[in-house]
Amino acid sequence: MASRSIPSLVLRRLLQAVPALAGIIVVTFVLTRALPGDPAILFAGPTADEQTIAQVRKNLGLDQPLPVQFALYVKSLAHGDLGRSISTGQGVGEELIRRIPASLELTLVALFLSVSIAVPLGVMAATRPNSWVDHLCRVTVSSGVSLPPFFTGLAFIALFYVYLGWAPAPMGRLNMLYSTPPHVTGLYVLDAIFAGDPKTAKAALFQLLLPASTLALFTAAPIARMTRGAMLQILQSDFVRTARAAGLARRTVLWTYAFRNAMLPVITTFGMVFSFTLGANVLVEKVFSWPGLGSFAVDALVSSDYAAVQGFVLAMAVIFGLLNLVIDIVYTLVEPRLRIDA
Amino acid sequence: MDRRQFLVGTGALGFGTSLATLLQTLPAAAETDTIIVAIGDTITTLDVLRTGLSRASYQVSVNAYDRLVGFDTKVNPDGTVSYDSTKLHGELAESWEIAPEGMSIVFKLRPNAVFHDGSPVTAEDVKWSYDRTLGVGGFPPYQMAVGRMEKAEQFEVVDAKTFRLNVTKPSKLTLPDLATPIPAIFNSKVAKANATQSDPWANDFLHRNEAGSGAFKVEKWEPGQQLVYVRNEQWVGGTLPKVKRVIIREIPNQATRRSLLERGDVHVAFDIPGKTAKELIESPKVKVVGQPIANTLHVVVPNLTFEPFKDKNVRKAIAYAIPYEQIFQQAAFGRGTPMFGAASAEPKDITWPQPFPYGTDLAKAKAFMAQSAHKEGFEVPFAFDITMPWGEATALLVKEGLEGIGIRCNLERVSAANWRTLALVQKKYPLMLENFGGWLDTLDYYFFFSFKKSIFSAGDYDNPEMTALISKTMDMPVTDPDYAPSAKRMLEIAFEDTVRIPLWQPWLETAMLPNATGYQNWFHRGVDARPLALT
Lengths: 342, 535
Prior knowledge:
Helix content of chain B: 25-40%
Largest interface: A-B, 70 and 70 residues
Structural class of chain B: alpha+beta
Strand content of chain A: under 5%
Helix content of chain A: over 70%
Number of helices of chain B: 18
Radius of gyration of chain A: 24 Å
Radius of gyration of chain B: 26 Å
Shape of chain B: globular
Number of strands of chain B: 21
Shape of chain A: globular
Distance between the termini of chain A: 7 Å
Number of helices of chain A: 14
Largest sheet of chain A: none
Order of helices and strands of chain A: HHHHHHHHHHHHHH
Number of strands of chain A: 0
Distance between the termini of chain B: 61 Å
Oligomer: heterodimer
């Protein structure tokens, strides 16, 4: 039984990712070609004739046979070129570099809010099952999940922006009074702090509040449920009973013994919620004019924008792989037994 | 990092930020020399000739570039301002002269016209820009061909400030065609300096960089977020804009656009749905301008390849079974120009568009159905593009109406990417909703696209008399003595043949704050920022 260090875990995972990525490249290429519709006709515009459509098809490189298109795609991928999105007019690489941080910043703040509500709520509900706290948890969770985020978003805008005037205008990542901070991480709040510009950092943080709260309400549900469930199970286990019998303080039993052991499923859920929120919060992005990944992907799908769809899927695959890796590392920190090779 | 440190760390992140300091708001942009316009669509390029550009991108050509000529504007009876398709003025051209036989037009450029980099605008730039419209391929050469401009040899530099345009055939559409967004004049020196072997027309450079002489310079473009124009103090193409800066902000959600306007954080909410317009018209806080979209009609189209629709009686039965008024109220929210219910089957004049002589009359519809070979009724797929906001409500009401005469419709909701392929190119659907619109505002131009067998006509209609009339009138000046009788005949045939059943002409609706002035309605359906002002 050899103990595995974190670097070797990372290396092994990265190697494992190579065939998976190759598979994803092939599958997305084939699937995008199976999308309904003809992008050449769509992008040739409403008054294009046959000749125009043929020329547009040539301009887009869609007149080549599929294997040739694939070879060209792989060749440009090898050069780090993800192609050009027809619907946004930008390089897919540039789009992703601009949009991933936007989605990431929103997701991080949303999940920070969501975890700071859901985890305590879940723990409290588990310690007092069927009490008012438990009911509160249940109501919060059900309403959070059953209200569609675009509705919550619009309701938040109506309340906090239109009537109360507390929230800033829902017009994207930064009000136009401020200029975009110099690019370091792509996360505006951090970049503005790095640039020593607290005003812009504050403005960027304000812009995040409403969309992040909207998402937090939605994502709190699975995390709270999972925390409550895991805690309930652990609190009934033998070692907790033993600890209580041994006369340990209630606080120590709850947080040091029970909570740490209940964290594993919560972290797993967190990871799933994270990747989902990153790429699939289209409606929140649209409502708050947030230039994120989700709306990019959906617009690309609707217009059969091959390069954009391929780039998005590839980027999500890489992000998902990295996220899983991070979660596994976190596991080993929380639960040392996982470091031991079975 | 070990386990203990990690766990302590996560706890410490806790509630570090105080909520009270976060719940403050920022002042709205309130300077009077900056106007903020919210649009729903996204600007995909700065180059009007780029393949696949979005409709919103056309405004860059309007605001940052000049053409040789531009359309005048007119004040409508309700006090709003629209472009005037019948009158032109010079933008970069100081004057122009049409040769006696109409085979060429000589343009004199304004002597003091300069590009944004300060270099003078020359006939070389005009030629290079026109050559490029043909060279890039795709839609631009097609638009140029409408004005009889098909070969680069037709574009001739006479001297630095004189340009001659030779046409293959004299056409009334040539000059108006030069006023569309496509033939914008680019700074050819800058473009050529950035052209490469594989990209001789500098497409990559012009996609990201503006090289025009227009009223505004593009100060900043953040794709997917905003475009910022700053006034070009050297502009000679027209009256200098009153505002110094225009910010075009992309706000995809229409409810958000509306909130921003009502709170005064944007001055103009461009292109809002009819429903919102109808609601906002009551509000004292904003004003709404709704103006017809040039040469555009929402129509029901029966496809003549479908057996029952070969029978004119069936088509007429449909035309009388549609609940027009109900559709107009429920799908258009009463915001549009009705195109049904003309009193007489005889066209009163050659105004275009004008209402067709069909109205809801179930008895008449049933009578036509009884005369047809399909009196027992039939089932038919009825398709529409799901991105058309008026599609769903209209389709349901048409379906309901047709049930009254025994025609059972199965609704097919088609995605935007599929629509043109299936409906127009393959002509797969027997019955559909359609909304063709043309930039150039003449009857023959609309008929050219919609009333003859072509890739644009979903109904596969082919009437030799109509086709001949269309080719005859396309180039003919509207003042020609033969034009009016021909156009009238075309309308008569269209009324009689019932191959396109118009519902209404849609409006382009825009809401703005009371202090925002100068809004104009344009055929390109983009923001013309040049006349906008704040009071």
